[in-house]
Design brief:
alpha+beta, Rossmann fold, 7-stranded mixed β-sheet, 5-stranded antiparallel β-sheet, 18 strands, 30% helix, globular
C-alpha cells in the first residue's frame, strides 16, 4: 500500500517524524529495531551495568560525476585520476566500478500540477517513455507524486511498469494556486528514507523554478539532501529560453555560513536548479516541446554516463585530536589533472553530520 499524505505512516506526518529521527541519529533507530525484532521486548539493563558510548566516526559521501571533453564523454577513468577536495582538503577517493545494471535505483517522480503547469501539460505526455530511458537496465522501483499546495501520492514504490504508468496517467492539472517545491522535494526525500532505499536514490522534479508557499524552509531541504546522498534531476518550465544542463557555480566568499547563505538564496531564486547542482543531478529548463525533448534526451544520456565516486571525510586533527569533518555544509570540488580542460559536473556540496549522534549500549 502506498503512503498517503494524511496517514500516520506517511505524508507530511511521516516527514515530520523522520526529521526528528534524523536529529537523534539513525544508530539509535537501528539499535531500537535490533532490540525489538519479532515483537520481543528488549531487556532492560541493570542500573549498575557499565555503559559504553558508541560514537559515529564516519560519513560516507557519494559524489556522482560526469566528465566531458568537448562534446564527448570520457570513459574508463581510474580512481587515481580524480582529485576530490572537501572544503579545500584532498580526500581519499573510491570509485564504484560495478556495472550500472548491478546498482538498483529508487526514483521518486514529482510533478507539479498547479499554476503554469497547466499550460505545459501537453509537453509531458511522453513522460513514461522518458522514465524508461532514465531507469535503463538497472533494477528500478518508482514512486509518483503530484503537488501544488500539498502532495498527492499516486503510487508508492513499485517495480511494476504497468502500475507506474497507471499512476502517471492519473497525474493531471489541478486548480491550485500553490507551488510548494521545497515541501515536495522534502516529501520525496522522506519517502526514500522511509523506504530504506539501499541503492541509488533519485528524485525527478518537474516544476516551475520558484517556490510559492512551502512550509518547509530552504535550509531544511538543503540539510536533508546534503546528508542523504539523494540526487535531484530537475526539469523546469518557465517563459525563458531553453537551457540544457546550465551550471551554476558559486563565486567569492568562504566558510560554512556564507556557503549556506548562498545556497539558500540560490534555492529561493531557482529551486530545481540549486537542488540539482548541489546534489550532483542535471538541470534542464525548457520553454518549447523541442527544448523539453532535447533536455530529457540529454538527461537520460547523462544519468547513465557517470562515475560514482565516494569518500569518508578526513581532516587534519584538531586540538581535541578529532579528524572528522566540522558539522555543516561542505563544498566539494572534483578535478582531473590529466584533463585540465574537461567539463566536470559533480555533486557540489554535502552536509556533515554533527558528532552528537551517539548510541549508548551495553558492552558485548
Amino acid at each position: 500500500m502506498g503512503i498517503g499524505r494524511g496517514s500516520v505512516e506517511g505524508g507530511r506526518l511521516l516527514g515530520m517524524s523522520f526529521r526528528m529521527v534524523r536529529q537523534v541519529g539513525f544508530g539509535v533507530v537501528a539499535a531500537a529495531f535490533a532490540g525489538g525484532v519479532g515483537g520481543q521486548e528488549p531487556s532492560a539493563p541493570a542500573d549498575d551495568a557499565p555503559k559504553t558510548t558508541i560514537q559515529v566516526q564516519s560519513q560516507l559521501v557519494f559524489v556522482p560525476t560526469t566528465v566531458e571533453a568537448g562534446k564527448d564523454i570520457l570513459y574508463e577513468l581510474k580512481a587515481s585520476q580524480f582529485v576530490v577536495e572537501d572544503n579545500g582538503i584532498p580526500q581519499k577517493v573510491r570509485l564504484d566500478e560495478d556495472d550500472e545494471s548491478a546498482r538498483p535505483l529508487s526514483l521518486v517522480v514529482a510533478v507539479q500540477c498547479s499554476r503554469s503547469a497547466v499550460a505545459e501539460w501537453d509537453k509531458l505526455r511522453g513522460l513514461p517513455t522518458m522514465i524508461d530511458a532514465i531507469t535503463g537496465d538497472a533494477p528500478a522501483e518508482v514512486a509518483v507524486i503530484q503537488f501544488g499546495t500539498g502532495e498527492d501520492l499516486m503510487t508508492g514504490f513499485t517495480r511494476d511498469v504497468t502500475v507506474r504508468d497507471q499512476a502517471l496517467a492519473k497525474v493531471a492539472p489541478c486548480d491550485d494556486g500553490g507551488d510548494n517545491i521545497f515541501d515536495a522535494v522534502d516529501y520525496a526525500n522522506t519517502l526514500l528514507e522511509a523506504h530504506h532505499a539501499t541503492g541509488r536514490r533519485a528524485v525527478l522534479l518537474i516544476s516551475e523554478t520558484r517556490d510559492h508557499g512551502s512550509e518547509t524552509k530552504a535550509e531544511t531541504v538543503i540539510h536533508e539532501l546534503g546528508r542523504s546522498n539523494t540526487v535531484v534531476d530537475a526539469v523546469a518550465f518557465s517563459p525563458g529560453r531553453d537551457e540544457v544542463v546550465d551550471d551554476l557555480h558559486y563565486g567569492g566568499g568562504g566558510g560554512i555560513l556564507s556557503l549556506l547563505v548562498m545556497a539558500v538564496e540560490a534555492a529561493r531564486k531557482n529551486a530545481p536548479k540549486e537542488f540539482a547542482r548541489m546534489s550532483g543531478g542535471e538541470y534542464i529548463n525548457f520553454a518549447t516541446q523541442k527544448g523539453f525533448d532535447k533536455g530529457m534526451d540529454t538527461l537520460s544520456n547523462h544519468v547513465h554516463d557517470f562515475y560514482m565516486l565516494s569518500f569518508v571525510p578526513r581532516f587534519p586533527a584538531n586540538m581535541a585530536g578529532s579528524a572528522q569533518a566540522a558539522p555543516g555544509l561542505h563544498k566539494i570540488v572534483v578535478k582531473i589533472p590529466d584533463y585540465p580542460k574537461a567539463t566536470v559536473r559533480h555533486r557540489e556540496s554535502y552536509w556533515a553530520n554533527a558528532p552528537g549522534d551517539d548510541v549508548t549500549a551495553k558492552p558485548q
